[in-house]
Amino acid sequence: MDGGTGIGWEPHEVALLGGGPRAAVTVAVVALHLRGAVETGPRGTLCATGPEPAGLGPFEGTVLDCLHEPLTARELVRHPDVRLALALARIPLAEHGLLGHPRLRPTRGARRHVEFWRQRHPLPAVGHGLTDEDTLLAVALHGDAALRLLLPRFALRAGLTDPGAPADGVRFSWGRGGFPRWRAAHEDPASGDGGGTGHGDHAGGGPD
């Protein structure tokens, strides 16, 4: 954890604690999209585009490598390499006492930390003027609500949001069907069982 958010955790780590594997992958996809490395393809797929950006961290780099073959978001989170990257991302969180047993769920302290930062960094009132770092933190903390405000077209085309999902609460809905954050935090990405955003339409960004 080298503090990419300014609060001590990388955006995907914040998302992993607050929303689980889908949230972490969502944030990585958004980070790559903001750097021009990922765009949407046919039938709701995601695919790598252009040269690989410099300075990618291991988690984002793994996600990008997997997207040299077009995948949907749901396929991406189940990719063996992404599952391994998620497991590796959990190690420093567990070492800091933020994930506990069984099944490396967020501890009560981790949930308090995430809620504290959610209150300290509320959803922006307008969808423009944010840095990429601010955008990623907003998505990590506020899920669908931030995606709809900051990257509505990309998120919808990429299957990262469900147009029919309720707007209240913190959700990472991923297309059809709601996905509340604490259910996400406990999901097993392999089985999908419970228990376990410039580029595009980024506010103030360039062409979609």
Tell me what the structure shows.
It contains ten helices and four strands; from the N terminus they run ααββαααββααααα. Helix 2 (21-34) crosses helix 3 (58-66). The protein is globular. Helices cover 46% and strands 5% of the residues. It has a two-stranded antiparallel ribbon. Strands 3-4 form a two-stranded antiparallel sheet. The longest helix is centred in the middle third of the chain and has 16 residues, at 80-95. With 208 residues, it is mostly helical. The relative contact order is 0.18. Strand 1 and strand 2 (46-48) form a beta hairpin.
Write the layout of secondary structure elements.
Layout: H1 11-19, H2 21-34, E1 38-40, E2 46-48, H3 58-66, H4 73-78, H5 80-95, E3 99-100, E4 105-106, H6 108-120, H7 132-142, H8 144-150, H9 152-157, H10 181-185
Antiparallel strand pairs: 1-2, 3-4
Helix pairs in contact: 1-2, 1-7, 2-3, 2-7, 3-5, 7-8
